[in-house]
Amino acid sequence: MTAEFAVALPSVVLLLALLLAGSAAGVTQLRVEEAARGGARALARGAEAGEVGDIVRRLAGETARSEVALDGEWLRVTVSGRVPGAVGALVPWALSATAWARAEDPGAAQQSAADGASRGAWLGI
Fold this sequence. Notes:
Helix content is 59%, strand content 20%. By secondary structure, the protein is an alpha+beta fold. Mean pLDDT is 81; it is low at 116-125.
């Protein structure tokens, strides 16, 4: 009985580690998606790129990175992050999500984009 348990234990531990890593990746993906949506909503309302970066970090965690782009009246926020924890460090999963929003006031969105670009804060928050 003890020999069988000793043989099976590493398999059980490995399976448990994979399940925990998968659930951590799932939770991280949900947080990244919500951060992208929140950032796009704020950007559509006329928030500046720095504010969007703060919103993204608050929703997705301090290690999340965001990128903001303007395409006419459409605004795009792309958020990327890594899976936290020990297993996330061993398996370099980079998760990302993109959200598009239409500016509520197109003139304000273009002005916000011009302001952010002139300060160098528009891309890579």
